[in-house]
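Hey L., structure's done. Input below.
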Amino acid sequence: MTEMVYGAVPIRDGEPILPKWWRTIDKWSLSCVLILFAIGMLLGFAASVPLAEKNGFPPFHYVTRQAIFGGGALIAMILTSMMSPVLVRRLAVLGFLVAFVALVFLPFFGTDFGKGAMRWYSLGFASVQPSEFLKPGFVVAAAWMMAASQDINGPPGRLWSFALCISIVLMLALQPDFGQAALVLFGWGVMYFVAGAPILLLVGMAGLVIFGGTIAYSNSEHFARRIDGFLSPDVDPRTQLGYATNAIQEGGLFGVGVGEGEVKWSLPDAHTDFIIAVAAEEYGLVLVLCIIALYTGIVVRSLLRLVRERDPFIRLAGTGLACMFGVQAMINMGVAVRLLPAKGMTLPFVSYGGSSVIASGIAIGMLLAFTRTRPQGEISDLLGRGHR
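Output:
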């Protein structure tokens, strides 16, 4: 009867953790993530070989590293998804504090690897990008603050979260990393909207973003160059956008064939920021649509489960994580087809990169933990009692 009323699988007391996890997890979203990772490995076999040869490594050097990173990410995702929301919150806030401190010291001890943006710590055998780990932790911390502000005599959590968001955005913009800065601001805005923000305030924030973009365009050559390239009616065929655009056009509906693509030999970031161009050229529009459907499935499934959630913290944190995950994928693909300015953002679980894939695994693990079925009524039941 409980299952009929609440749409949930009843959980028995003392049930072992693995059966309980399997009963309550969103299996559709989990399956979509695993398929995305498999597609990323498949594309890595094609996209990373030219770069490995160029750098004097064995042909599948980067594929092997991605498999190691991906294995770690999947383990982190599954372990995180087994945690209770309270434990996720505590560990996320702790992780956020560590990532925030790392971001503060990045200008002094970080490196840009010749890309003109100070975003990484070099560890010799690998590199770490603090902003990737900062995003999921910030979402959970900000959701905690916003949820606390809804309590009677609660703290001014919305104001605290806004101050924290602006400080992070400014630090990211100074790297410069305007893509991650915009993503953090978007995640906070979505949660603030769900928490009941006045629409006029959100409009004012949009105006502030436009004003900030104008200042950045006037004072940052890096930012201005990317905006000018995006607005230009002509695409230089020798640029990354030019190569990516041509590859997508050449791919057509079914692609030129496995291993037959040429863009991977021309694009230095074919295995990371422009991996979707490799997919479009070799496998065609069919694979690209499948990838879009997988990301859409994860976001929509998560939001449908969260909309029935009673706990405001879980609802806010889950919404922020789901929307940030989906928008990051949208930005990456939007840049490749020239719908958005170049931002240097990876495609979650598909692009090569240790920080990106591990941080994505942790973020989705948090989302799966928040969307697990729990033995409670839905928010509609709670609202219904208020009318009785």
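The first strand starts at residue 121 and ends at 122. The radius of gyration is 22 Å.

-- N.
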